[in-house]
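User: Could you go from structure to sequence for me? I need the amino acid at each position, not a summary. Structure tokens:
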């Protein structure tokens, strides 16, 4: 009777230990999901007629060489409360695929020649033209409108769709139709966005000269600056930014993400600047279709400017699921979520491309493992090791218990 009772106890402990081991194995799986990207089947139905031309959103040839948009959209397509400040050549704010995404200054009254909201700018409804000091940041170059569409072209029955179509975009015009930009205009644009709630700035431009004023403006702004790594200089062949810095992407600041470009096959774009120490991540930047200033149409462009816009859109998706994310955590999540690609090994810090779906998952306030990782602020591999050790400890504890019971029964 005594022995029979112990046999039951032994069976119970064995079953319990199996459950516990299994539980810890699940915990381990959960962590490994953070490290590895998901590879679920993607829902490829879409109403925007040009969607099939947008390999950056869904790459039908290479499953994992895109932004993971279709999976991210199962969680969010962005929020109108999140504003991306596009510092560029302006935006065609009348384009039918952009008009619903344009940020509007609700505290200003249009056309009355009065600075109603007393922000220093008269009749600034859609942002401002800092280059010409006028209230209309209308794009006369095309670059800014192309970037704008990549981020937030509407999800409708028209043209294409942006990666974060429900996000608002603010037109901060610092480029004229042609010619150089003034640092003072860029700084003014940053300050304008800052007081109007921008927490993500898209800077799809750069220069080889270092500007202390621009460095300070970025450093002193609690926002994430997504900065293009550059397009290879005069010969259009990608350069190493570790050796020849390209600013603002190359400023060593915690609130900058520097972005390189990949093509449809997952190779670093021929024009794309790179840098194992100075460029963080890559995104689709070749053969990218987006909105143009001509006749409400669409056109293809190549460049780290385009890749950059996909990272800005991803940041916007992350903030829309978790508006309380700090800038530091937002950056950490985006880089942590990147999907490693062999073509990017030794080319960028993460060796990876942007993964909007994984970014959104990690950004979610319900994603406890990540919040723990971020709160202790240590590399993911280390935490993974911790859990393996914990799991091992539990197994050891139970095997010790079982051994001692056998010893007891043997006596
Ligand atoms: Ca005003
Ligand atoms: Ca006014
Ligand atoms: Ca559309
Ligand atoms: Ca070059």
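Assistant: Here is the amino acid at each position, in order:
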């Amino acid at each position: 009777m005594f022995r029979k009772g112990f046999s039951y106890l032994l069976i119970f402990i064995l079953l319990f230990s199996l459950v516990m081991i299994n539980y810890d194995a699940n915990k381990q799986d959960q962590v490994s999901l953070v490290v590895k990207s998901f590879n679920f089947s993607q829902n490829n139905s879409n109403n925007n007629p040009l969607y099939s031309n947008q390999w950056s959103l869904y790459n039908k040839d290479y499953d994992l060489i895109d932004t993971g948009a279709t999976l991210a959209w199962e969680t969010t397509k962005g929020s109108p409360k999140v504003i991306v400040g596009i510092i560029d050549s302006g935006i065609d704010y009348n384009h039918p695929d952009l008009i619903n995404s344009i940020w509007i200054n609700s505290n200003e009254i249009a056309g009355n020649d009065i600075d109603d909201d007393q922000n220093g700018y008269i009749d600034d409804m859609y942002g401002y033209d800092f280059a010409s000091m006028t209230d209309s940041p209308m794009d006369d170059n095309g670059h800014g409108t192309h970037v704008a569409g990549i981020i937030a072209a509407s999800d409708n029955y028209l043209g294409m769709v942006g990666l974060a179509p429900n996000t608002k975009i603010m037109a901060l015009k610092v480029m004229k139709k042609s010619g150089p930009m003034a640092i003072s205009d860029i700084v003014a644009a940053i300050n304008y966005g800052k007081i109007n709630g921008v927490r993500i700035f898209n800077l799809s431009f750069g220069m080889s000269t270092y500007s202390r004023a621009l460095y300070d403006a970025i450093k002193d702004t609690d926002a994430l600056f997504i900065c293009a790594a550059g397009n290879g200089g005069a010969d259009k062949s990608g350069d190493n930014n570790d050796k020849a810095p390209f600013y603002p992407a190359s400023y060593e600041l915690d609130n900058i993400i520097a972005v390189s470009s990949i093509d449809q096959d997952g190779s670093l774009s021929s024009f794309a600047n790179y840098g194992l120490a100075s460029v963080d991540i890559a995104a689709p930047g070749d053969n990218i279709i987006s909105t143009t200033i001509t006749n409400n149409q669409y056109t293809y462009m190549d460049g780290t400017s385009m890749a950059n816009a996909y990272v800005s859109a991803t940041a916007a998706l992350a903030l829309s699921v978790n508006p309380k994310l700090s800038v530091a955590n937002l950056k950490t999540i985006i880089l942590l979520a990147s999907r490693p690609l062999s073509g990017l090994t030794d080319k960028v810090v993460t060796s990876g491309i942007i993964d909007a779906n994984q970014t959104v998952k990690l950004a979610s306030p319900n994603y406890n493992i990540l919040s723990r990782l971020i709160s202790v602020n240590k590399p993911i591999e280390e935490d993974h090791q911790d859990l393996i050790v914990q799991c091992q400890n539990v197994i050891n504890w139970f095997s010790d218990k079982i051994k001692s019971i056998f010893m007891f029964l043997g006596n």
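One structural detail worth keeping in mind: The domain at 43-377 is CATH 3.40.50.200 (Rossmann fold).
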